[in-house]
């Protein structure tokens, strides 16, 4: 699986300290885990505070698109933040599905985690080859 990401840009830099904080590991990137199991992959997104109804998951052109569209994130805040790490910005994550059975993908949003189960296609499952 190949990850390509396209995150919507924030309305602009929040402060001159923004790049400094990012260099110490503070950023607004959506965190996720990609777990490989024998018959499937699991994607787990850390989305605490994100509303389930704002998610859209599409399969198109052999790609999985995880989309979060929060209309509030399109409005620039009038607050004068020095640093802001609470962010539910809209985002799009795109994953290659070349070795996935896309007809059986399942998703669940629970306790701040969006879990997407991606079954491996039969062609990619491990098997032993007999030598003739």
Tags for this model:
132 residues; mainly beta; Immunoglobulin-like; four-stranded antiparallel beta sheet; 8 strands; 5% helix; elongated; disordered N terminus
Could you write a compact summary of the structure shown?
With 132 residues, the protein is mainly beta. The protein has one helix at residues 18-23, and strands at 3-7, 32-36, 40-46, 55-60, 63-68, 91-96, 106-110, 113-119.
What does this structure look like?
It is elongated, with a radius of gyration of 18 Å. It is mainly beta and 132 residues long. It has a domain at 3-11 and 30-75 and 85-121: Immunoglobulin-like. Residues 1-27 have low confidence and may be disordered. Strand 2 and strand 3 (40-46) form a beta hairpin. The protein has one helix and eight strands; from the N terminus they run E-H-E-E-E-E-E-E-E.
How much of the sequence is in beta strands?
Answer: 35-45%
CATH architecture of the domain at 3-11 and 30-75 and 85-121: Sandwich
Approximate shape: elongated
Q: How are helices and strands ordered from N to C?
A: EHEEEEEEE
Tally of contiguous helical segments: 1
Rg of Cα set? 18 Å
CATH class of the domain at 3-11 and 30-75 and 85-121 equals Mainly Beta
Structural class of the secondary structure composition?
mainly beta
Largest sheet: 4 strands, antiparallel
The helical percent reads under 10%
**In what order do the strands lie side by side in the largest sheet?**
1-6-5-4
Mean pLDDT level: 75
The poorly predicted ranges are 1-27
Head-to-tail CA distance between termini: 32 Å
Number of distinct beta strands: 8
């Amino acid at each position: 699986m190949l990850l390509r990401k396209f995150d919507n840009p924030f309305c602009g830099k929040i402060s001159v300290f923004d790049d400094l904080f990012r260099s110490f590991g503070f950023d607004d990137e959506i965190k996720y885990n990609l777990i490989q199991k024998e018959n499937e992959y699991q994607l787990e997104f850390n989305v605490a505070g994100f509303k389930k109804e704002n998610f859209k998951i599409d399969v198109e052109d052999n790609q999985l698109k995880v989309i979060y569209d929060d209309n509030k994130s399109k409005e620039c805040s009038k607050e004068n933040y020095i640093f802001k790490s609470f962010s539910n910005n809209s985002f799009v994550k795109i994953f290659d599905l070349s070795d996935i059975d896309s007809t059986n993908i399942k998703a669940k949003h629970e306790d701040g985690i969006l879990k997407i189960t991606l079954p491996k296609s039969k062609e990619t499952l491990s098997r032993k080859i007999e030598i003739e």
